[in-house]
Design brief:
Shape of chain B: globular
Mean pLDDT of chain A: 96
Number of strands of chain B: 14
Number of domains of chain A: 3
Order of helices and strands of chain B: EHEHEHEHHEHEHEHEHEHHEHEHEEHEHH
Low-confidence stretches of chain A: none
Number of strands of chain A: 14
Strand content of chain A: 15-25%
Mean pLDDT of chain B: 96
Largest sheet of chain B: 6 strands, mixed
Low-confidence stretches of chain B: none
Helix content of chain A: 25-40%
CATH class of the largest domain in chain A: Alpha Beta
Structural class of chain A: alpha/beta
Distance between the termini of chain B: 46 Å
Largest interface: A-B, 67 and 61 residues
Order of helices and strands of chain A: EHEHEHHEHHEHEHEHEHEEHEEHEEH
Oligomer: heterodimer
CATH superfamily of the largest domain in chain A: Nitrogenase molybdenum iron protein domain
Shape of chain A: globular
Distance between the termini of chain A: 40 Å
Strand order of the largest sheet of chain B: 1-12-11-10-13-14
Number of helices of chain A: 13
Strand content of chain B: 5-15%
Radius of gyration of chain A: 20 Å
Radius of gyration of chain B: 23 Å
Strand order of the largest sheet of chain A: 12-11-10-13-14
């Protein structure tokens, strides 16, 4: 059964992905949820919470307000908090109960916007998807609401799209010679930088969370985009060597290994957004049982150490911790993905 | 008295028992308190199974992972389809739990099942699920957990109800002259007068928090009487006492001498006649060390934070702030005493939106915090790292607590490393 997980954790959820994506942009992020989403997020899915301010709150929804659809309290609480905390914008996220009762988030956003004078937008989540979905929707909603066409272009300017600590906690992106980083969406960044994004000439998608925003900017502002390291241009063959995880990062690592060692790796994509991100030899898997079966004939596996729990015993396992999977467990082991030699070597 | 819209209020001006107006909620990065996963693992050999959406699952499964207990934890993921089609939620829950149990290398003797808010809102037939599970797995004892925080604002919390469900499987045992202490997650300390005084009389103590085997857990009912030492355990221990027909005494760790004597006498223990004097002397010595340095207390450290504040203030300590979001109604007398005798003591909310920007601009005093949340809000590395009263009780407990305050005042801690860790006292692989 796809839904049963005997031992593997699930990935970081979509609500946490929403919060991680917009963390540094000065907004007030409100999750319409009774309790738990905030604690889960700041404990297991966020490395910045202790020291770096972000206005991320839950609504503290109770049963009566959920049953009666008391959106007035939710709206009033948001307006009061915004008056006290003075955010740059407000973003709202959903959770299972408001999803079930069909809460009108777009309508609430409009009311909040009218009352506060701040941009307010809804990010489609319901806590039933992984972080890639939530972060992707957050970047897309932010771009749609906040970006304006540029009055000038920066020659050689690039944006990095899809950078959050969930995927890139230690990645030191290398900007090619002759290129200038205009904005990073959205880790170690600022609202001011991100708002300049349309001045760039090119978007680089560094995880699947950045793809939807890249597509939007292409359509809306005519900005082309590419995938990290143009990894799909590196031809890989069918193999029993697998790399398990998020498709862009996995594809990138597989391409680097192919280029350096000639070794073929097939991606087992275990997060939700994969369209246009996989090579012919790669595949998508959902749930512990499917992943276990996909790995059953493996000679070698690269992946988060937790995947070793379901890997065949005779397969060589190369540890590549991923914060969105194992959280704080192997935080200190997470490498700079740009430095292949730090996490993968062949004789 | 109206509730305060601000994040802090003088106790003399505070509404009882809820001083603060509800609103959006902040969550401080202090996680030493136990959640339902930590609590569930107190049943030895039990396997926990949660049935919920991804984002809700993440917090509980990673709690288990950080305890090194993934092999005793499984998940059934709910998706949109489960909420659209009639009967799908029951089917997914039942078949998911069945699959998980069948996949385990050994059938667990106890399985704690956690449906969630969605099950309640969809009108899921929980009894049908348990009846069917009982037929499919007759050798497994099912504990009826629930992870439904949507109910906690107006009723009981999931952890209160979990404790009750966990106690529901304790069989009625014979009377063997012993006393069972139940409901608190902290094992009884050596500085606990319940333990010291009863063992001195030759009475055996059974401690729920210290059970190492399932047999020990089941034997908790083999006692003459029960003691509940923590508020969150009261619902369950009251129900257990009623079911097995044994008297229960509720005695959370308090700093009030009269309350201590009264509770100890109820369980047939004779308080140390020098206890009050020894505590007063210890407090005097500590006061000389601390001087007028500020003290902040939070509600997670001890079950009776206002009795602690009263104890300290009445002995000259400079308690400035008490972090809590609501006052335990049982602390009304201490609340009123503080309002009358220390009216400027500030009650500070921990969940208020302004908590994200804690005001640390006060005095230049070295601040001693009691509890992890107080440590974070005050930004201090001098704090007593304790939850739920740390297994202390009585005069021995008060003296031990004062020693911990002294240690905390003298020896700084790595707050950033310590307080984000979950479940103080649990195994932690971080």
């Amino acid at each position: 059964m796809k839904k049963a997980y005997k031992i593997l954790p699930v990935y970081t959820g979509d609500v946490s992905g929403f919060a991680s994506a917009l963390y540094e942009l000065g907004g007030m992020l409100v999750i319409h949820d009774p309790s738990g989403c905030n604690s889960t997020y700041n404990t297991h899915d966020e490395v910045r919470w202790y020291k770096q301010e972000a206005l991320i709150y839950i609504s503290g929804l109770n049963d009566i307000d959920a049953i009666t659809g008391n959106d007035g309290k939710f709206t009033a609480d948001i307006v009061r908090a915004a008056e006290e905390m003075k955010p740059k914008f407000i973003a709202l996220a959903n959770s299972p109960l408001p999803y079930l009762n069909g809460t009108d988030f777009k309508g609430i956003s409009k009311i909040v916007e009218d009352r506060t004078g701040l941009p307010c937008f809804y990010v489609q989540t319901n806590a039933m998807h992984d972080y890639t979905k939530g972060a992707s929707e957050a970047f897309l909603a932010f771009a749609k609401k906040m970006l304006k066409p540029a009055d000038r272009k920066i020659e050689g300017g690039i944006n990095i799209l899809g950078s959050t600590p969930l995927d890139h906690v230690n990645t030191g992106f290398v900007i090619p010679e002759g290129k200038t980083l205009v904005s990073n969406w959205a880790y170690k960044t600022s609202l001011e930088d991100v708002m300049k994004a349309t001045q760039a000439e090119l978007n680089i998608v560094v995880s699947s969370t950045g793809l939807a925003a890249a597509e939007y900017m292409k359509k809306e502002f005519g900005m082309p985009y590419g995938l990290m390291g143009s990894y799909l241009d590196v031809k890989r063959e069918e193999s029993h060597n697998y790399i398990v995880g998020e498709p862009v990062i996995s594809g990138y690592v597989a391409s680097q290994i192919k280029k350096k060692y000639g070794t073929d790796l097939n991606v087992i994509a275990t997060t939700e957004i994969t369209d246009g991100l996989l090579a012919d030899c790669d595949r998508k898997c959902h749930g512990e049982d499917e992943i276990r079966q996909a790995l059953s004939d493996a000679d070698m596996i690269i992946g988060d150490p937790l995947f070793e729990l379901i890997a065949p015993k005779n397969a060589k396992f190369v540890r590549l911790p991923h914060f969105a999977m194992s959280g704080r467990l192997y935080r200190k082991e997470i490498p700079d993905l740009m430095r292949l030699e730090d996490y993968y070597n062949e004789p | 008295m109206p509730t305060s819209n601000d994040d802090r209020i003088r106790i003399a001006d505070a509404a009882f028992p809820k001083p603060f107006t509800g609103g959006l909620e902040f969550n401080a990065p202090a996680h030493g308190t136990w959640n339902i996963v930590h609590i569930g693992f107190k049943i030895p050999d039990a396997h926990q199974i949660y049935i919920c959406a991804d984002n809700c699952m993440r917090g509980v499964v990673m709690t288990a992972a950080e305890m090194g207990e993934l092999s005793r934890f499984s998940s059934v993921i709910l998706e949109e389809d489960d909420m659209v089609f009639a009967g799908r939620l029951e089917e997914s829950t039942l078949e998911g739990v069945t699959d998980v149990l069948n996949l385990l290398p050994e059938m667990p003797p106890v399985a704690i099942i956690f449906p969630v808010c969605v099950h309640k809102f969809m009108g899921c037939d929980i009894n049908f699920i348990y009846d069917e599970l009982g037929k499919r797995f007759p050798d497994v004892k099912f504990v009826r957990g629930f992870m439904d925080p949507v109910m906690q604002k107006r009723g009981t919390t999931p952890d209160q109800r979990l404790r009750k469900a966990m106690f529901d499987i304790i069989p009625e045992g014979k009377k063997d002259g012993s006393v069972t202490v139940i409901g608190c997650d902290m094992p009884l300390s050596d500085d606990n007068d319940i333990k010291i005084l009863l063992e001195k009389k030759g009475i055996k103590i059974r401690d729920e928090a210290s059970c190492k085997t399932l047999e020990e857990y089941y034997d908790l009912g083999c006692c003459d009487s029960l003691v509940c030492s923590y508020p969150a355990g009261l619902l369950g221990s009251t129900a257990l006492a009623k079911r097995i027909g044994k008297p229960l005494t509720y005695m959370p760790f308090t700093f009030g001498y009269d309350a201590t004597d009264e509770a100890l006498s109820k369980i047939g223990a004779t308080p140390d006649p020098d206890g009050r004097m020894l505590c007063d002397n210890a407090a005097s010595e500590l006061k000389m060390l601390l001087g007028d340095n500020e003290i902040a207390i939070d509600y997670t450290a001890v079950p009776r934070p206002l009795s602690l504040a009263r104890f300290l203030i009445s002995r000259g300590f400079n308690v400035k702030r008490i972090y809590l979001d609501a006052v335990d109604p049982d602390e009304k007398e201490d609340f009123e005493w503080l309002a009358a005798n220390a009216p400027d003591t500030m009650l500070c909310a921990t969940m208020h939106v302004k908590g994200r920007r804690p005001d640390r601009s006060g005095s230049d005093s070295k601040i001693l915090a009691i509890g992890q949340k107080a440590a974070w809000f005050e930004g201090t590395e001098f704090f007593v790292n304790m939850i739920e009263g740390g297994g202390l009780y009585g005069y021995a407990g008060i003296r031990a607590f004062l020693r911990l305050m002294e240690d905390a005042f003298l020896v700084p801690k790595d707050t950033e490393d310590i307080i984000p860790r979950k479940g103080l006292g649990c195994a932690c692989v971080l």
